[in-house]
Amino acid sequence: MPELLPWAWAVLALAALAIGLAKTAIPGGGILPVALFAAVLPARTSTAALLLLLIVGDMFALVAYRRHAHWPTLLRLAPAVVAGLVAGFAFLAIGDDNVVRRAIGVILLAMIAVTLWRRWRQSKADAETAPHGVVIASTYGALAGFTTMVANAAGPVMSMYFLAMRTPVQVFLGTSAWFFAIVNLVKVPFLAGIGLFNGPVLLMDAVLIPLVVIGALLGIRLARRMKQQVFDKIVIGLTIIGAVYLLF
Q: What are the transmembrane regions (predicted)?
């Protein structure tokens, strides 16, 4: 078991709860656990530890939304996502913890910018035609593959893509659930191949998994009651603090 101070365990526990909530109630909210894990653990270790907990959350998202996926969208994204995953794996394999840690900070800030830009676009008149081109799908797919491999932070990228495609809410949630469930499972052998799933990581995740389950169940129950705008502002604010901390 990793030797962490009580406050560090408290941060990880909060992150585990947030993972469950993000998977079942707060699309895009998963960026907060990325910042919290990377602030407490070595960067490469945080990526591996977080991945296993995300997979647990994915299972609950699939149970809730599995029937609403739009498979043509997933197939359109697949080639670029694979290319992004390979590029991200190469970066993880050659980068040391300091480089990866700062890269996660930069990625988080970029993802926040993406989220804010998406909301600004959404607030404008929706008279524009939704983009359907291969170039658009390839750009989003490659960026999602890279960011999810390096930092488990593809949520805002995919949210922006689905909204740009004018995806209905249920289809949005179902397609996202399948996308992350598949991609996260694909990432496991990559990270295992560079030795990131060691005994301490597995033991730590075993302790945190019940909190992910609790968060997911709470998310399913509270999804229709939660004031997402207020929660999103809290998530963005805390994530900015976490990203700046990682950079400096």
A: 46-65, 77-94, 100-117, 171-196, 202-223, 230-247
- The one-letter amino acid at 94: I
For 206-230, give one letter per residue: b (16+ CB within 10 A) or e: eebbebbbebbebbbeeeeeeeeee
pLDDT in tens, 121-139: 766 545 444 555 788 889 8
Q: Measured between alpha carbons, how far is 93 from 29 in angstroms, rounded to an integer?
A: 27
**For residue 15, which of 60, 52, 63 has the smallest C-alpha distance?**
52
Q: What is the 3-state secondary structure (H, E, C) of 37-94?
A: HHHHCCHHHHHHHHHHHHHHHHHHHHHHHHHHCCHHHHHHHHHHHHHHHHHHHHHHHH
